[in-house]
Amino acid sequence: AEAAAAGDGAEAEKMTADAAIADWRRGAGAADRSLHGVDLVCHGVWAPVCAALGGLDGVFDLGNAATAHRTYAASAKFADDLAALAASGDRALARRVRRRLRAHPATATLEERWNLPVYFELVRGDLVRDLDDALAATYVLVDGPRRGPPEVSDRVASALGVVARTWAPDVVLAPVGDKFAGLAFELVGLVVGDAARRLGDATADWPPRRLGQLAFDLDAFDAAVAVRLAAGFEASLDLDLATADAVAAGARAALAPG
Q1: What is the mean predicted confidence (pLDDT) over 187-200?
Q2: 30 pLDDT more than 60
Q3: Which of 41, 135, 147, 189 is the 20 to 30 A CA-CA neighbour of 160?
Q4: Does residue 144 have a pLDDT over 70?
Q5: Which of 127, 121, 122 is nearest to 191 (CA)?
Q6: Whole-model pTM over 0.90
Q7: Burial of residue 250 (number of CB atoms within 10 Å: 0-12, 13-18, 19+)
Q8: How confident is the model at residue 204 (pLDDT cuts 50, 70, 90)?
Q9: Cβ-based neighbour number of residue 132 at 10 Å
Q10: Can you state the percent helix, strand and coil of the chain, rounding each to 5?
């Protein structure tokens, strides 16, 4: 009888424990299970992929900036797709998974191999050279229609095209996104400085139409950059609204008359 009673007590205790575990799983345990799934994604999938990439020396070749961008972007997209798959449609969980993947030591090891600051310097050199070429071109007045709004000169259109490359998705990489934002402001400053020098060199021999073209070009450039710079970085870097607003404020400050 005593043994039977002890057995009944043990069974009741087991049932109580099972009920507690079930409650835990329905509550906070659900979040922990999600974290365990994330750990499995990080350590069971992402880490082996990074190890395999680390054995491919050609992936980290910075001899060609465009190729370096494609290889890095492909690995970043794989990580984003992996996060989305692990989250099964849960956007909040997908963001958490992406953050954990980006913070994983294997990710840091890969980024060291890519040496992204060197990639940025390569792109910067190309863009500064292209902008210098655009600004060195002969200033040709636009023979636009006599009626209707004027058009920007080819010279300024080329300069704007170079500046826009600083936020182009096929150029910018998120880990060095701040450097590209700084480069955008640097190039804007070069364009504005060039226009200021030309206005300073203006003489009485300049026809009003030439002065008007230069002033219109500068206004059009400022307006285009003010609108496109913040929107471009927001799209390329997936910025939150507060950061995008800060970038827009920086663009307005850089373009403000000094």
Answers
A1: 83
A2: no
A3: 147
A4: no
A5: 127
A6: no
A7: middle
A8: low
A9: 13
A10: 80, 0, 20
